[in-house]
């Protein structure tokens, strides 16, 4: 089974034909996925070219799952994979998700929830991925797309990609994500210096008549209420902690 490189068209996710054995550098350049992540920013599109070139399309089959299980590929979205060594920093992980979305990516999509935590912490890409949007809810394969109004201060950019700040990420994890998924991510964000519990507590206290707020407050105390500094061996972000940036 041959990996397919993504196509050269702006924002396209159509698979290219496998390279012939004698294909040279010019052919590789022609197949580079120029234009991926352009919906987010020109900066993201420029940084995304190497990631777009490495993006692979594989059918969802047992052999593919074996490649993932053995660590040869990381699954970003259904049918979209990259080699794990290309996900070493927060910038790479954010761009990888944008490239995997391809032409479905919109300027109002913001990386959120488990996906935002994964961008900062590394590890296994969450399935499904999660995005927030100010537009009407749509459908994207392998993505939870929630409609939300985000204040400007709740969004930061990493490599030109919009992502919720850690406090907002934690609030969404507490309100909407199953505890089995949310708990290790919350602990990782706090232990790795991206999150201060009292900031999340303060923000939750300011929220009234929002779905899931009361249970989120209880979950916060259960998960992080008495937490002290613990070690975290997640992937490096290539960024300063959220406390200082």
User: Which runs of at least 5 residues are low in confidence (pLDDT < 50)?
Assistant: 1-33, 229-236, 240-245
Radius of gyration: 18 Å
Instruction: Please report which band the strand proportion falls in: under 5%, 5-15%, 15-25%, 25-35%, 35-45% or over 45%.
Output: 5-15%
Question: How confident is the prediction overall: mean pLDDT?
Answer: 83
Helix content: 25-40%
**Number of helical segments with 4 or more residues:** 9
Dominant shape: globular
Distance between the termini: 44 Å
Largest sheet: 4 strands, antiparallel
Question: Secondary-structure element sequence?
Answer: EHHEHEEHEHEEEEHHHH
Report the oligomer: single chain
Molecular structure report:
By secondary structure, the protein is α+β, with helices and mostly antiparallel strands. It has 9 helices and 9 strands. The protein has helices spanning 25-30, 42-54, 62-69, 90-101, 113-121, 166-176, 179-191, 197-205, 213-224; strands at residues 4-5, 56-57, 74-77, 80-82, 110-111, 129-133, 143-147, 155-158, 161-164. Helix 4 crosses helix 5 (113-121), helix 6 packs across helix 8 and helix 8 (197-205) packs antiparallel against helix 9.
Provide a compact summary of the structure.
This protein is α+β, with helices and mostly antiparallel strands and 245 residues long. The chain has helices at residues 25-30, 42-54, 62-69, 90-101, 113-121, 166-176, 179-191, 197-205, 213-224; strands at 4-5, 56-57, 74-77, 80-82, 110-111, 129-133, 143-147, 155-158, 161-164.
């Amino acid at each position: 089974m041959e990996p397919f490189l993504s196509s050269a068209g702006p924002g396209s996710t159509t698979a290219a034909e496998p390279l012939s054995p004698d294909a040279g550098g010019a052919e590789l350049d022609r197949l580079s996925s120029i234009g991926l992540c352009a919906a987010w920013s020109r900066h993201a599109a420029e940084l995304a070219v190497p990631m777009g070139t490495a993006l692979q399309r594989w059918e969802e089959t047992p052999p593919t799952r074996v490649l993932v299980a053995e660590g040869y590929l990381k699954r970003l979205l259904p049918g979209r994979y990259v080699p794990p060594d290309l996900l070493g920093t927060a910038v790479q992980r954010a761009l990888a998700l944008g490239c995997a979305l391809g032409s479905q990516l919109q300027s109002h999509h913001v990386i959120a929830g488990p996906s935002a935590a994964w961008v900062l912490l590394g590890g296994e890409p969450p399935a499904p991925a999660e995005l927030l949007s100010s537009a009407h809810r749509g459908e994207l394969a392998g993505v939870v797309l929630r409609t939300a109004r985000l204040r400007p201060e709740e969004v930061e950019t990493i490599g030109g990609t919009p992502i919720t700040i850690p406090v907002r990420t934690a609030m969404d994890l507490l309100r909407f994500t199953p505890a089995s998924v949310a708990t290790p991510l919350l602990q990782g964000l706090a232990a790795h210096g991206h999150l201060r519990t009292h900031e999340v507590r303060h923000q939750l206290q300011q929220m009234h008549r929002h779905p899931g707020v009361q249970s989120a407050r209880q979950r916060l105390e259960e998960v992080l209420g008495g937490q002290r500094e613990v070690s975290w061996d997640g992937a490096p972000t290539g960024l300063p902690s959220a406390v200082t940036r």
